[in-house]
Amino acid sequence: MNNWYNxxxxxxxxxxxxxxxxxxxxxxxKDFVEHISSIGKKDITLRINSxxxxxxxxxxxYNALRSHSGYVQIKIEGLAASISTVIAMAGDSVEMAENGFxxxxxxxxxxxxxxxxxxxxxxxxxxxxxxxxxxxxRKTKLPYDVLSKMMDEETWLSSQEAQEFxxxxxxxxxxxxAAKFDLSKFxxxxxRKVKDVLExxxxxxxxxxxxxxKTWFNSLKEEIVMAVKGxxxxxxxxxxxxxxxxxxxxxxxxxxxENAQSLREEKEELAGLVGEKESIIADLKxxxxxxxxxxxxxxxxxxxxxxxxxxxxxxTEEVVNEWDAFAKSIxx
Length: 332
Fold this sequence. Notes:
The chain is α/β, with parallel strands linked by helices. The chain has two domains: about 5-200, Alpha-Beta Complex (2-enoyl-CoA Hydratase, Chain A, domain 1), CATH 3.90.226; about 205-290. The protein has ten helices and eight strands. Strands 1, 2, 3, 4, 5, 6, 7 and 8 form an eight-stranded mixed sheet that branches. α1 (about 30-40) runs parallel beside α2 (about 55-65) and α8 packs parallel to α9 (about 245-300). The mean pLDDT is about 80.
């Protein structure tokens, strides 16, 4: 018989998989809870890839897991939507695949009859919403109004966002899972995008694009740092990805380009400041050198040479020969 869950029970632990719509195939939470009871005190690993299902079945499963005496580990391997997110909150630890989705929304139901019947249904849905918010709050510690608004808007969260809000504890490697769900009953979802991400249809391409963007941006940062230091910078390598392949990447790249332009402007401003400061420093050095030269000149003293006694002049005796003497006597 088809079922929306599967249980593998070993001597030490149990593994449960919920990979379909909860409450389908005529199997209720009563059967699930009975299986939980039969596990005893063993640790449980619960794997989830579910679009949700019966609210009442989901709440019963949540309570059964919460009261289980063993350790309960939740692994969201693809999609956790609607009431399956409530079941995930029963775990002692909750992890989610990187390419998974976590969706919360208001409970909805059908009613028939007169106005009083519809009012009763509306009141019941409000009570269920309050109970679900209380369950989310135990895990996330988020305010009631925040969670209520997220449910009103049918909020789809990536694994990173789910972790930031406190719904999950850890993010694991991406997993390729079947995305056979009918998402048409939801109002705020890109069904094609969800299925592509869950099935990793664009994973290799996105990985390549992400890595090239990281390399390009890091090169740009290095260029700016080197320019400020006055060193020669290499030109960042070009990004060869086709941006039209993914809307998210287009948006991210646009944001990166805006940041890059801002960084370039800051780089030019810093380079101008550095050049201006270098010119000021050179001018100051010249002024300091001139001042030192003038200071040395003003502090210099006149050199005076003094003799110990007055010098005497000794006339040199003139040598006269006898012929000169004879000539002088005749002239007289």
